[in-house]
């Protein structure tokens, strides 16, 4: 069978392992459409052609492109447009399925390969693969795993799909849930919340918009924390203390250890280094 020609659409770090899987399986890339960012840099490094606009081919592939393609573009490829979506559709349609799964405390997620239509993550499903979410998974680690799984799954099903040997099945639209675009304000930490919820937000929102708070009117990013600690201390929400070289912060139902932190205008540092440098100030409470 002739190797199908593919135009690839992708713009984020998630896109790159999917693109790499296509190259490793020696699929013919007729070109890539992307925005400025990590994919553009990858294309320049590997001398892969970048297209200014879509062109006719056997197949379009989307992996984290960030735009809905209109019907006239979707009509160009002979065998349609496949989308690699990092959730088990119909759950978590939309722009932030990885963050949403972490925030919800889900124990599993997965990747869906679907046939794209003009609605958001709405089209029929070709294949899915599950993945366990580990307790310490972050947006970056989970996204990388899902992208690699999705790329390999995509590479497996392209030939049978183009040959007409693979059937699709409709999503159960009544069970669909939707995610929202992540905004900077979503990362603001509410120290009255539960420790587990705060730690999930740290894992979900690093590196952007980051889980953040304020100290003395300065922006502070919390990059990594530990929830399960043994201490006799009682701290109010946002209250800080250094104990056994650990930076403790009070939450609504307990205490977090801050492992990694970045004050405004400063480099990333350990919680203990932050404590030695900043807790001498008058304010010892995150707001």
TrEMBL record:
Keywords: Protein biosynthesis, Transferase. InterPro entries: Fmt (IPR005794), Formyl_trans_C (IPR005793), Formyl_transf_N (IPR002376), Formyl_transf_N_sf (IPR036477), Formyl_transferase-like_C_sf (IPR011034), Met-tRNA-FMT_C (IPR044135), Met-tRNA-FMT_N (IPR041711). Residues 182-278 form the Formyl transferase C-terminal domain. CDD domains: FMT_core_Met-tRNA-FMT_N, Met_tRNA_FMT_C. It catalyses: L-methionyl-tRNA(fMet) + (6R)-10-formyltetrahydrofolate = N-formyl-L-methionyl-tRNA(fMet) + (6S)-5,6,7,8-tetrahydrofolate + H(+). (6S)-5,6,7,8-tetrahydrofolate binds at residues 87-90. SUPFAM superfamilies: FMT C-terminal domain-like, Formyltransferase. One of its GO terms (cellular component) is cytosol. GO terms for molecular function: methionyl-tRNA formyltransferase activity. It is an enzyme of class 2 (transferase). Residues 53-157 form the Formyl transferase N-terminal domain. Its EC number is 2.1.2.9. Attaches a formyl group to the free amino group of methionyl-tRNA(fMet). The formyl group appears to play a dual role in the initiator identity of N-formylmethionyl-tRNA by promoting its recognition by IF2 and preventing the misappropriation of this tRNA by the elongation apparatus. Belongs to the Fmt family. This is Methionyl-tRNA formyltransferase.
């Amino acid at each position: 069978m002739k190797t199908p020609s593919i135009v690839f659409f992708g713009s984020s770090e998630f896109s790159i392992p999917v693109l790499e899987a296509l190259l490793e399986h020696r699929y013919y890339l007729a070109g890539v459409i992307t925005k400025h960012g990590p994919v553009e840099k990858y294309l320049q490094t590997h001398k892969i052609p970048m297209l200014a606009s879509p062109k006719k081919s056997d197949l379009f592939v989307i992996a984290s492109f960030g735009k809905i393609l209109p019907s006239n573009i979707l009509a160009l490829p002979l065998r349609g447009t496949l989308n690699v979506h990092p959730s088990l559709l119909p759950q978590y349609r939309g722009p932030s399925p990885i963050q949403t799964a972490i925030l919800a405390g889900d124990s599993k997620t997965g990747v869906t390969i679907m046939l794209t239509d003009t609605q958001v993550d709405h089209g029929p499903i070709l294949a899915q693969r599950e993945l366990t979410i580990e307790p310490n998974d972050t947006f970056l680690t989970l996204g990388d795993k899902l992208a690699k799984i999705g790329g390999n799954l995509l590479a497996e099903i392209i030939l049978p799909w183009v040959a007409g040997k693979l059937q699709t099945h409709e999503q159960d639209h009544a069970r669909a849930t939707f995610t929202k675009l992540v905004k900077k304000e979503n990362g603001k930490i509410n120290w009255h919340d539960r420790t587990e919820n705060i730690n999930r937000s740290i894992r979900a929102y690093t590196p952007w918009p980051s889980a953040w708070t304020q100290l003395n009117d300065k922006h502070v990013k919390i990059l990594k924390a530990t929830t399960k600690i043994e201490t006799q201390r009682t701290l109010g929400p946002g209250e800080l203390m250094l104990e056994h070289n650990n930076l403790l912060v009070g939450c609504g139902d307990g205490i977090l250890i801050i492992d990694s932190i970045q004050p405004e205008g400063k480099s990333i540092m350990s919680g203990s280094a932050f404590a030695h440098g900043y807790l001498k100030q008058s304010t010892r409470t995150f707001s």
